[in-house]
Write a structure and sequence with these properties.
This protein folds into two domains: 197 residues, Alpha-Beta Complex (Quinone Oxidoreductase, Chain A, domain 1); 137 residues, NAD(P)-binding Rossmann-like Domain (Rossmann fold). 24% of the residues lie in helices and 25% in strands.
Length: 366
């Protein structure tokens, strides 16, 4: 095919408010390096990582909830997920779906013409389990909020599915994050899992993937979103922030104990989440949108023999498992809305408001 020299792209020019994202109609199309493929992007999902990186929320100087606004306290030395400065301009966007249209000299040319999604974690493929050698697609390199992007061929997976490109763009970031949390916590069919923020991209993925493992799932979300979450398999649904979590759980499940808390919210709810865990329970976390700094009574931690796990960089096998779940229809896409790239600002504003259930996707074909 004839590949153009320029493309439309949404370009992040620095940390700050949403105006730092600038639309360009004539950005240069990237050229694939030796081990890379060139992908014509059809859709790319939005994620909290995009917002947090743009605003600088990852900086230890910030203790507020995720708002999407600029922060006065951002430290220029640690504004990214990895605690390192980023270079600008940068094209964000990790959750791509598209077609491979070209390949570098050492890339797998059989991928050309195939519809693919991407493993968001950039790795040293000679040492793929080394978390100190990882980067994130759309953070440490340019990503998918553009008509074309490049990525290492070992980071892409062809997908055979009747799902639309926009639906496939809802999976990679949210579902590998959720599966990583559940794997690290060792969730199985004997567990009762409490999921915070259950209506978001990662939260709704946690509901589906925990149910896939046979666990009993209790989701916390705004009550107007409960019907949609029930259709995904949630066994019990609670309000987003119950006035008394212990009482709400007692009314919903009686004496049954919570063995796992899968938390992406943090904030003021954190102490109550920890107190509701049974002895020997597990807490796994991959987000803190309601606030990253929370009090912990260490007596609860050690006297109850609790296990805490953080989860960010996942094993390469998790992406391969995700592809299998998609192709076998074991998980459902939860596409809340699509926006054209030229209307990216409105899409991200709606994403930040969190009135939706599931994922918001940017379409390059609208």
């Amino acid at each position: 095919m004839n590949i153009p020299e320029t493309m439309a792209a949404m370009v992040l020019t620095g940390h700050g408010d949403i105006e730092k994202l600038v639309y360009h109609a004539d950005w240069p199309v990237p050229q694939p390096a030796d081990y890379e493929v060139l992908i014509e992007v059809s859709a790319c999902g939005m994620n909290n990582t995009d917002v947090n990186t743009r605003s600088g929320w990852y900086s230890k100087g910030v203790s507020d909830a995720t708002t999407g606004n600029a922060y006065d306290t951002v430290d220029s030395e640690d504004p990214s997920w990895g605690g390192q400065p980023l270079s600008f301009p940068r094209i964000q966007g990790a959750d791509i779906c598209g077609t491979v249209v070209a390949a570098g000299n050492r890339a797998d040319r059989s991928l050309i013409g195939k519809r693919v999604i991407a493993d968001c974690w950039l790795r040293d493929w000679n040492d793929p389990m080394n978390r100190d050698k990882t980067g994130y697609f759309g953070s440490e390199c340019n990503g998918g909020f553009a008509e074309y992007t490049t990525i290492d061929y070992r980071n892409v997976g062809p997908v055979k599915s009747t799902m639309t490109d926009a639906e496939l763009a809802t999976f990679s970031c949210s579902y590998t994050t959720a599966e990583g949390m559940l794997s690290r916590a060792g969730v199985n069919n004997e567990d009762t899992v409490l999921v915070t923020g259950a209506s978001g991209g990662v939260g709704s993925a946690l509901v589906q993937l925990a149910r896939r493992r046979g666990a009993t799932v209790i989701g916390m979300a705004a009550e107007e979103k409960h019907a949609r979450l029930e259709s995904l398999g949630a066994d019990v649904l609670l309000p987003r922030s119950p006035e008394n979590l212990s009482d709400a759980l007692q009314a919903a499940i009686g004496t049954r104990k919570i063995s796992v808390v899968a938390d992406i919210v943090g904030g003021d709810t954190f102490p109550a989440l920890i107190e509701c865990l049974q002895r020997g329970g597990r807490y796994t976390c991959s987000g803190a949108i309601a606030g990253p700094v929370a009090p912990l009574d260490l007596r609860t931690l050690y006297l109850n023999d609790l296990t805490f796990t953080g989860s960010t960089v996942v094993e390469p096998s998790i992406f391969k498992d995700l592809l299998a779940y998609i192709e076998s229809d074991e998980i459902k896409p939860l596409l809340a809305a699509t926006y054209p790239l030229s209307d990216f600002h409105q899409g991200q504003k709606d994403f930040i408001e969190k009135k939706h259930v599931g994922n918001i996707v940017v379409s390059m074909t609208e």
